[in-house]
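name: query_chain
kind: protein
chains: 1
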Amino acid sequence: MNNQDFSMLIKIGGAILADDDLLESFSQDLTLLKQAGAKIVVVHGGGQLISEQLAFNNIESQFIDGQRVTSEKATKIIKLVMSGYINKMIANKLTRLGVNAKAMSADEYQLFECNYYSESLGFVGKIAKVNATSVEHHWNSDTSDIDTIPVIAPIGIDNGGKLLNINADHAASHLATALGVDKLIYLTDQEGILSKQGQQYFELTDFEIKQLIADETVVGGMLVKTKEILSALKKVNNIHILNGKKKSAISQAILSSKPIGTVCKTSQQAYFQEAV
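structure:
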C-alpha cells in the first residue's frame, strides 16, 4: 500500500481501551499506515466502562440483540464516559505515542443525525444522516490538519438536539459509507466470525453472512456487527474483522501472506476474483 488516496476507518473497542500495551501497538500500526500514505479515522466504543459507570449510578445494563437499552438519564452518563473520558484518553495517548490524533465527540459536530432505533431500546439512535464535513476536513490537503487522525465518540442527536446513544459498530459502518473509505476494519475481542463449533471463517460473502444471521450462528455483539457489515458492503468493498487483543493486528493482516481474521466481501466480488 503506497497511495495518498487510500482511506480507512478503524473501529476499536474493549480490548484496546483496557490495555496500554495494546493501545501502544495500535498507535504503531497507525504510524505505519500514515507513513504509507493512508487517510485514517478511528471510531471507538466503550462498553465495559459505560456498564461500570451505569452500575455506579444504580442503572442496570440491559441488551437486546447486542444493543444497549438506554434511558434518557443513561445518555448523560454515556456522554460523560464516552466524550469526557474515553475519547480524550485515546486521542491524548495516541498523541503522546507520536500519532497526531484529534478527539471529536460526534454530537458536538452534529456528525450523526438520528431517528430512534426502537421503542424497546429507548434513547438509542438509528443514523438517518451523516454530516462528514468535519472529518473530511482532516483529509483535505488544503488544510493544515492533513496528518491528523480524527478519533470519534459515537454520540448522536435527534431532530430536537437530544443526545442519543449510538452503537459504535453502527456508527462505524455509516461513517465509512459516507466517507467512501477503501477499507473498514473492526477490531474485536475474537479472531473473527466463528462457526457454532468455534471454527474461524477466513472469508465470507454477504450471502454467507445472511445465512449465519438466519441460523443464529452470530449472536449478541457480533450480530450487530455482521448486520452493519452487510449494510456497509453496499458501498465499502473491503471489510476486515480482526482480533484487537493481538499486538500489531492491523499491520500483520495487511503484510502477512497468511489469512488473518475474517474478510467480508460481496458475492459479486468473490465471483469475479474466482473467475480471474
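note: The chain is about 40% helix and 20% strand.
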